Amino acid sequence: MVKGLIVCDMDSTLIKEEGIDCLAHKVGKAEEVSALTRAAMEGRMDFGDSLKKRVNLLRGVDLQTVLDLSQQLTFTNGAIELLHLLRLQDFKIGIASGGFLQMMKPVLQMIKPDYILANSFEIKDHKLTGRLDRPIVSAQSKKEAALLWAQELRLSADQIVAIGDGANDIPLLQTAGIGIAFCAKEVVRNQVTYHIEEANLMKVWDLLQSLHRI
């Protein structure tokens, strides 16, 4: 019997890096892309507008560059342990991310989530076109995906645990029974009940134990 659903952001949550910023650094676009990422994560710019501009700056990047970089991304301390322990407690795992599927493959192969929502680069002739190949993952779509997954599992919103760090995670964090701002931007901390400031996801396990959820 499924006891709960944990829904995690990817960049700067399950992994230490912001994937698109790492890619931008590799191809000489770091300053422009990082500024747009910060503006979106701090709530100073609409996430969709920011993402479209960031992706457009990466037009012409070879897909192999993206795939090579994906091998270098690193899990946040405690990430693997947390997800392993939650599976043993009959939790299902969902990823709701504004990051890109092409950069997540090694991570996804390791954690094998039950559900995944993420953006995807449009690819033509093995190069990024500067566009996405599907609708942008927005703050609202993260929330809606989590509720849909919970419904499929016959769980209530109260049985969702959500973890994120950016402004585009706020609706998800506020909808979940336990929404956790993880090493988050101030705009997120101000709107979410539970905060973790140490970059170790096993602190989520400690919090859930203290709340008698596991």
How would you describe the overall organization of this protein?
With 214 residues, the protein is of the alpha/beta class. It has a single domain, classed as Rossmann fold. It contains 10 helices and 8 strands. It has helices at 19-26, 30-41, 47-57, 63-70, 79-88, 101-111, 139-152, 170-175, 186-189, 202-210, and strands at residues 4-8, 91-100, 115-119, 121-124, 127-132, 160-164, 178-182, 194-196. It has a 6-stranded parallel sheet with strand order 3-2-1-6-7-8, sandwiched between helices. Strands 4-5 form a two-stranded antiparallel sheet. Helix 1 (19-26) packs antiparallel against helix 2, helix 2 packs antiparallel against helix 3 and helix 4 runs parallel beside helix 6. The two termini are 14 Å apart. The model has no long low-confidence stretch (mean pLDDT 97).
Features:
214 residues, alpha/beta, six-stranded parallel beta sheet, two-stranded antiparallel sheet
Strand content: 15-25%
Radius of gyration: 17 Å
Morphology: globular
Q: State the helical fraction.
A: 40-55%
The N- to C-terminal Cα distance equals: 14 Å
Strand count, sense and barrel status of the largest sheet are: 6 strands, parallel
**What's the domain count?**
1
Question: What is the level 1 CATH name?
Answer: Alpha Beta
